[in-house]
Design a protein that fits this description.
The complex is a heterotrimer of chains A (350), B (135) and C (328). By secondary structure, chain B is an alpha/beta fold. Chain B contains 4 helices and 4 strands; from the N terminus they run E-H-E-H-E-H-E-H. Chain C is globular and about 55 Å long. Classes of the chains: A alpha+beta (350), B alpha/beta (135), C alpha/beta (328).
Chain lengths: 350, 135, 328
C-alpha cells in the first residue's frame, strides 16, 4: 500500500546517513571537475545536484559494468579449477528519473527472463532504487512519446517528488517498506494538497518538452518497412558506426566474452560491452557477414528498439532519454527516425 | 611497479652477426633476441606493446646507412623510430627505455659496449623508480 | 551575413548538380543547436541545406574510399561536391596527398564561415534551448521555459575559431568570401597567444599523472577513430582483427590497455593529422586528446618543415628519407 510522507530538505543529510548504514555506497547525480553532469558516489549531501539535466552516462554501469570479470581458471598439475571471487557491495541508486527507471525494468526483464544472469541479478538484488520526478528535461527528451510519464514511479523502491521545501516520499516495494521504521523520526505527515503535486509537475514538465509524437501505429506496419532501405539510408549515410550511442543507451545490453591468460596455465574470463554498430558484431567464423553494410546495421538497431523487443517482451526498448542524440558525433536524431517510421507505417496501413 | 621483465633486442642480418649474438647470450642471459629481417621491418607498435606490458627495455640494432641488404630499409626506419621515441615521451613514458643503434654488420665490440651502457642506464632508471615508490 | 552565403551556395549547387552526382553538405537535425551532415542525391533536396554557425562537422571523413563505397552506387560515374569551411579543406588536401581521394572527381566549394559555436560552452550559459538564431555578432535564444535571452557571439565560439587558424586553402574550385574587413577584424580581435604544449611545460611525473587521469576515463567506444579523417584504414583496422591467439590489444577496459590503444592509434595517425579537433569534440567522456596532437605537430614542423594539409604535392615525412639525416 503506498503511503506518502514529507521529508524536509534540511533532513536529507540525515536520511542519507541512515541509508548508508544498510547500503554503504550511495550513487547519485553530481558534477565532475568540468561542470558536466555524471553519476558518481556521493559522500556528502552537498555533492548532489538535482536541478540539472540528465547525466550523459547511464546508470546501467552500476548494474552491468563496462568490463567485468566472470571467473578465474587454472590448469595446474592436470587439475582444472574455477574460482568465482565476485563480491557485490550493497548500493543505492539515488534520484533516477522515470526514463532510467523504465530502462532498469527493461534490463531486469532482459537479464532474468529466459535465463538468469547471476552477475546482474546479484548486483540488482543488492541495490535499492530511489526515483525522483523529473522537472528538468533537455531539448532531446521524448519520454512521453515512448509511453513514460515524467512522474511515473514504476520500477523504484522509494520515490521522491519535489514539493519546494520538502520531498514527497513514497515507499513502494517490500524492500522499501521493511526499512521504513529506520526513518521514523524524519518522516512527517503529508498534507492533502500534496496529492496534486505530481499532476502539477507532470503538466509543467510536459510543457517544457520540445516535441511529442504518437508511435501508436508503428508496430503494425513496421514489418513492411524493413524492405524500404531508402528510409534508413537517409541516416546511415552520415553515420560513422562509432558505437557511442549504444554505449550511452540505458537499455543496450549486448556484450562480448573474452579470455585473458595471466600466465602460462591460468587466466580469467571477462565480458565487455559490445555494439551492434561495429562491423565485427555479426561477423561469422566463416568470414561471411550478414550485416556488412552500414544501412543494415542501422536498420537492425532501429528495428530492435521499436519492434523486436516489443515482440519478445512486450516492451519498447527505447525510453526517450535522448542520450543517443546528445552524444552522436554527427547529430543523428532518433526522434526524426521514429517520426519517419510512423509516417511510413500509417501510409502502409491505408 | 618494479620492472622485472626482459629486455628485447631486435636485430637484422642474423646470419652475419653470429659472433655478436653468441657474446650477448653469454654476457646477458636475460636479453631476448628477436630476428627481424631488416630494421625497416620493425613496427614501433611492438615496442609500445612490450614496454606497456612491463618490459625492461627494447633495443633495435640496424645496419649502417650505406650497408643495408635491402638498400633503403634502414633509411626509412630512421625517421620512423625517431618519431616513435617522441611518441613515447609525448605520453609521459620513459623514452630512454627504447634505444636504436646503427652499426656495420661485422662490428662486435662497439655494439657490446653500447648495449652495456644501455643496461646501466636502465638499472639507474629502475632504481629511481623503485625508490620513488617506497616514498 | 552568413544567410547570404547559404543562399549563394544553394544557387551554385543547383547550377552544378548533374545526374549521378553526390553533394555532401549540412542540414538541421530537428534539435535547435545541432546541424548535421547531409548527403544529397537528387536536386530537390538542395533546398533543405542549412549553413550556419552550428556546422561543426569535418565533412572530409565521408570522402575516404571506404565511406564512398558505402554511400555511392557500385558503378557511379558522377562527381562528389563538398561544401567545406577553410579549416576542413586542410584535411581534404592531406587526404589527396595520401591518395585517398580522386582529385578529378571532387568539386570543392569553400565558404568563409563566421565562426562555429561550441555547444558545450553555449549550454553552460543558456541552459536547454527551444530556439536559437545568430545575426552578425549577436546570438538570440529562447529557453525551453519560454524565456528569451541574448549573448554576444564571440563568448561562445570554440577555441579553434578563437585562435584564428582560418587560412585560405591551397586549392579550391569555388570560394565564397565573407565580408573581408569584418573577417580580418574578427581574426585580430580573437587571436590568442600561441600556447606551448603541455609536455614542454610540466615535469615527467606531472605529465604522467595528467595522461593517466585522462586515459582512465576512456571507454573504448572508438568514436575518435571513426570520426577521424586521417584514420582511413577503416574496415582493415588493426584493432578490429578477430581475436588472434596473441592479440595485439585486449578488449578489457583498463588504464594499461587504453594507453596502448591510444599510443598505437596516435602513432599511425599523426603525420596526417591536421588538428581539426574532431576527436576531442566527439569523445563521450571528454578526454583532452589535443594534448598529444599539438605536441607532435610542433615537432613535425620543427624537424621536417612539414605541416599537414598545407599542400597536396609534398608527401608526409614518414614516406621518404634524406641521406645523412642523423636523428636517433
Amino acid at each position: 500500500m503506498e503511503e506518502q510522507y514529507r521529508l524536509f530538505k534540511n533532513d536529507l543529510n540525515k536520511f542519507l546517513e541512515i541509508l548508508r548504514k544498510s547500503y554503504p555506497k550511495i550513487i547519485g547525480p553530481s558534477l565532475d571537475s568540468e561542470e558536466k553532469e555524471i553519476f558518481k558516489e556521493i559522500t556528502n549531501v552537498n555533492e548532489l545536484k538535482l536541478d540539472r539535466t540528465i547525466p550523459l552516462k547511464p546508470p546501467k554501469e552500476f548494474l552491468f559494468p563496462q568490463s567485468e570479470e566472470l571467473f578465474k581458471f587454472s590448469f595446474k598439475e592436470r587439475k582444472f579449477d574455477l574460482k568465482d571471487e565476485n563480491f557485490f557491495e550493497k548500493q543505492v541508486l539515488f534520484a533516477l528519473r522515470p526514463c532510467d527507471l523504465t530502462a532498469i525494468k527493461y534490463t531486469d526483464t532482459f537479464f532474468t527472463s529466459n535465463f538468469i544472469d547471476v552477475y546482474y541479478s546479484a548486483k540488482r538484488e543488492n541495490s535499492l532504487i530511489i526515483g525522483i520526478a523529473c522537472e528538468y528535461p533537455s531539448n532531446k527528451c521524448f519520454c512521453t512519446s515512448m509511453g513514460v510519464s515524467p512522474v511515473s514511479s514504476k520500477g523504484s523502491d522509494i520515490f521522491l517528488t519535489n514539493g519546494g521545501t520538502f520531498f514527497l516520499v513514497e515507499f513502494l516495494t517490500e524492500k522499501a517498506l521493511s526499512m521504513r521504521e529506520q526513518f521514523a523520526g524524519l518522516l512527517k505527515e503529508a498534507s492533502l494538497e500534496d496529492a496534486t503535486l505530481k499532476n502539477r509537475i507532470e503538466k509543467r514538465t510536459r510543457s517544457l518538452l520540445l516535441e511529442e509524437f504518437d508511435l501508436g501505429k508503428v508496430g503494425e506496419g513496421i514489418e513492411r518497412i524493413y524492405e524500404k532501405e531508402e528510409l534508413f539510408r537517409k541516416y546511415s549515410d552520415t553515420c560513422v558506426m562509432c558505437g557511442a550511442c549504444t554505449f550511452d543507451c540505458p537499455t543496450c545490453t549486448c556484450f562480448d566474452v573474452s579470455d585473458k591468460f595471466l600466465d602460462k596455465d591460468s587466466g580469467k574470463r571477462y565480458r565487455t560491452w559490445d555494439s551492434c554498430s561495429f562491423y565485427n558484431f555479426s561477423l561469422h567464423a566463416s568470414g561471411y557477414n550478414p550485416r556488412s553494410r552500414k544501412v543494415e546495421r542501422l536498420r537492425q538497431r532501429i528495428m530492435h528498439k521499436f519492434n523486436y523487443t516489443v515482440k519478445q517482451f512486450n516492451l519498447w526498448s527505447c525510453v526517450g532519454c535522448g542520450r543517443c542524440i546528445a552524444v552522436c558525433p554527427v547529430g543523428i536524431n532518433i526522434k526524426s527516425i521514429a517520426k519517419d517510421l510512423q509516417r511510413e507505417a500509417s501510409n502502409e496501413n491505408k | 611497479m618494479a620492472r622485472e621483465g626482459l629486455t628485447y633486442l631486435f636485430l637484422c642480418r642474423i646470419d652475419k652477426r653470429k659472433k655478436l649474438i653468441e657474446k650477448i647470450r653469454n654476457k646477458y642471459p636475460h636479453i631476448k633476441i628477436v630476428d627481424v629481417i631488416c630494421s625497416g621491418r620493425f613496427n614501433p607498435a611492438y615496442a609500445f606493446k612490450l614496454l606497456n606490458s612491463g618490459a625492461n627495455g627494447v633495443i633495435v640494432l640496424g645496419c649502417d646507412p650505406a650497408d643495408c641488404q635491402y638498400r633503403e630499409g634502414n633509411l626509412v626506419a630512421e625517421r620512423r623510430l625517431f618519431l616513435a621515441k617522441k611518441t613515447l615521451s609525448c605520453f609521459g613514458l620513459d623514452a630512454e627505455r627504447f634505444q636504436v643503434i646503427w652499426h656495420k654488420v661485422n662490428e662486435v665490440n662497439p655494439v657490446l659496449s653500447e648495449i652495456s651502457r644501455f643496461m646501466n642506464e636502465i638499472n639507474i632508471i629502475n632504481e629511481k623508480e623503485g625508490s620513488m615508490e617506497k616514498k | 551575413m552568413i544567410v547570404e552565403i547559404e543562399e549563394n551556395v544553394k544557387k551554385l549547387l543547383k547550377k552544378l548538380f548533374k545526374e549521378n552526382d553526390i553533394i555532401i553538405s549540412y542540414r538541421n537535425s530537428g534539435i535547435p543547436e545541432i546541424t548535421t551532415p547531409f548527403i544529397i542525391r537528387s536536386k530537390n533536396e538542395i533546398d533543405y541545406i542549412s549553413i550556419d554557425n552550428f556546422c561543426v562537422n569535418n565533412l572530409s571523413v565521408y570522402l575516404s574510399k571506404f565511406q564512398q563505397s558505402e554511400i555511392r552506387m557500385p558503378v557511379n560515374k558522377g562527381r562528389v561536391i563538398v561544401t567545406a569551411k577553410p579549416c576542413d579543406t586542410k584535411s581534404i588536401i592531406q587526404m589527396i596527398s595520401d591518395e585517398q581521394i580522386d582529385k578529378d572527381k571532387l568539386i570543392l566549394v569553400v565558404y568563409e564561415c563566421d565562426g562555429i559555436i561550441d555547444t558545450k560552452r553555449l549550454k553552460r550559459v543558456t541552459g536547454e534551448l527551444r530556439q536559437i538564431s545568430v545575426s552578425d555578432d549577436e546570438v538570440n535564444f529562447t529557453k525551453l521555459s519560454g524565456e528569451d535571452g541574448k549573448i554576444s557571439l564571440h563568448t561562445v565560439l570554440r577555441d579553434k575559431c578563437l585562435e584564428g587558424s582560418c587560412d585560405v586553402p591551397y586549392f579550391f574550385d569555388y570560394y565564397f568570401v565573407g565580408n573581408e574587413k569584418r573577417f580580418k577584424e574578427r581574426i585580430k580581435k580573437r587571436s590568442r597567444p600561441h600556447q606551448l604544449p603541455v609536455q614542454n611545460l610540466k615535469n615527467k611525473a606531472e605529465l604522467k599523472r595528467i595522461v593517466e587521469e585522462e586515459l582512465s576515463k576512456c571507454i573504448r567506444c572508438n568514436a575518435c577513430r571513426n570520426i577521424c579523417p586521417a584514420c582511413f584504414c577503416s574496415e582493415r583496422c588493426i584493432f578490429d582483427k578477430p581475436k588472434l591467439p596473441v592479440g595485439f590489444i585486449e578488449k578489457e577496459v583498463n588504464l594499461s590497455e587504453n594507453l596502448l590503444y591510444h599510443l598505437i592509434r596516435f602513432y599511425h595517425v599523426f603525420p596526417n593529422c591536421t588538428g581539426c579537433g574532431e576527436c576531442e569534440r566527439v569523445c563521450p567522456q571528454g578526454i583532452k586528446l589535443s594534448l598529444f596532437y599539438k605536441y607532435i605537430n610542433e615537432i613535425l614542423v620543427k624537424e621536417f618543415g612539414f605541416s599537414a594539409g598545407s599542400t597536396d604535392s609534398v608527401r608526409q615525412p614518414l614516406l621518404s628519407y634524406r641521406l645523412g639525416e642523423d636523428l636517433v
